[in-house]
Structure formats: structure tokens, C-alpha cells
Design a protein that fits this description.
The complex is a heterodimer of chains A (111) and B (114). Chain A is mainly beta and 111 residues long. Chain A contains no helices and 11 strands. Classes of the chains: A mainly beta (111), B mainly beta (114). The interface between A and B is medium-sized, with 22 and 24 residues.
Chain lengths: 111, 114
């Protein structure tokens, strides 16, 4: 059974600081997804990582994938208040169209 | 304007009643999914359908039922057998594009059962 673990689950940081969210998964997979969820809202796709060593960046967020370590990271650079949200990683069950989600990391960026 | 719609946004029901949540997509996606989200939790898969007239149970299918009579529609019925139905329900769809089955989500339905 594929398990996906995120840490930390809660993250409070100051504006301007850097931090990394980690996503570990238990079985082989080559596709990993990062989503953002604002309170009471749906999920918005941030990044799709499709191969070992993949790195994608959008604004202050950068995601990477190490399939050998079964680890993805979401790095936040110089955080701003607008980044406050819950971030989920999801891993697909190889060969299927199903995703397994982590529990999410609730990020709060304080002025 | 392509997308996924869910209705209603909020739904209130009395315990013991069945309730049906609507999900429609005009993205021409083959696959559709239903997830449940509880506070502080990730998403858990209830049912999914890869093609019309076919669907599979996810991790928490007990107390739920679905149908897929049309490609664009995948309604979810929460039956009275579901012991704790109050939750946020999200519908998603996907298709194979650029090496991925990236899923796109609807706005969600918040169900409260009292």
C-alpha cells in the first residue's frame, strides 16, 4: 500500500524567510504532484514532476523530485503572506490513474 | 470556458436521508474521481471511473454509490449507511496528457448531516 507522508504538518514562518516542505512516499513512483488549497476552497495544481531529478519553479516556490530517495521537496523562498495556504503532495500509483495524497502542510506566513 | 462544476456548494441533510452530489465536466476527460476531505486530513478516494458505464471503489467506498452514464457526469450518492457523512467532497477529472494523468478539481460541496 502506497503511503505518502508530509512534514511538517504545520509551519508558521515570517515573511522573508526560507523553508522547505518534505514529501516522502513508500513505493516506487515516477509522478508526483503538488497542490495548493486555500481555506474552504478547492485544490489548485502547482507542479507536476514526472522524472527523477525534475525541478520546477514558479515565483517563490520550487519543487524537486528524487525518485531514488522517494522524496519530493517544496522550497519556499522569501515567503510572503499570500503564500499562506495548505500544500498537498500526491503520488500516483504506478500505471494507474489513482493518486494518494499526503495529509497536507498548513503554511502560515506572518508579517 | 472549460472546467468542473459541483453543485450545490453547501448541502444540509438530516441523518437517515440519502443525498446526491452533482459533478459535471466539459473538459472531455475520460476519468473522473470523488474524494472526501475531513478537517486536517488529506484527500481520500471514494470512487473513480475511467470510462463511461464503469467505475471502481476507492479506499472508502462504503456507504457511497456512483454512476457514470455520461462522460461528462459522475454523481455521488451519500447513503444513510455512511456513518459519518459530514465532510467536504471534491470531484476531479483527468486525461492522459504529456505523460501524466494530472487531476483537475471542482470547487467542492460541503455536506453537513445532523
Amino acid at each position: 500500500e502506497l503511503k505518502v507522508e508530509q512534514n511538517p504538518l504545520f509551519l508558521s514562518m515570517q515573511e522573508g524567510k526560507n523553508y522547505t516542505i518534505y514529501c516522502n512516499y513508500s513505493t516506487t513512483s515516477d509522478r508526483l504532484y503538488w497542490y495548493r488549497q486555500d481555506p474552504g476552497k478547492s485544490l489548485e495544481s502547482l507542479f507536476v514532476l514526472l522524472s527523477n531529478g525534475a525541478v520546477k519553479q514558479e515565483g517563490r516556490l520550487m519543487a524537486s523530485l528524487d525518485t531514488k530517495a522517494r522524496l519530493s521537496t517544496l522550497h519556499i523562498t522569501a515567503a510572503v503572506h499570500d503564500l499562506s495556504a495548505t500544500y498537498f503532495c500526491a503520488v500516483d500509483i504506478g500505471g494507474s490513474e489513482k493518486l494518494v495524497f499526503g495529509k497536507g502542510t498548513k503554511l502560515t506566513v506572518n508579517p | 470556458d472549460g472546467g468542473i462544476t459541483q453543485s450545490p456548494k453547501y448541502l444540509f441533510r438530516k441523518e437517515g436521508q440519502n443525498v446526491t452530489l452533482s459533478c459535471e465536466q466539459n473538459l472531455n476527460h475520460d476519468a473522473m474521481y470523488w474524494y472526501r476531505q475531513d478537517p486536517g486530513q488529506g484527500l481520500r478516494l471514494i470512487y473513480y471511473s475511467q470510462i463511461v458505464n464503469d467505475f471502481q471503489k476507492g479506499d472508502i467506498a462504503e456507504g457511497y454509490s456512483v454512476s457514470r452514464e455520461k462522460k461528462e457526469s459522475f454523481p455521488l450518492t451519500v447513503t444513510s449507511a455512511q456513518k459519518n457523512p459530514t465532510a467536504f467532497y471534491l470531484c476531479a477529472s483527468s486525461t492522459w496528457t504529456s505523460g501524466t494523468y494530472e487531476q483537475y478539481f471542482g470547487p467542492g460541496t460541503r455536506l453537513t448531516v445532523t
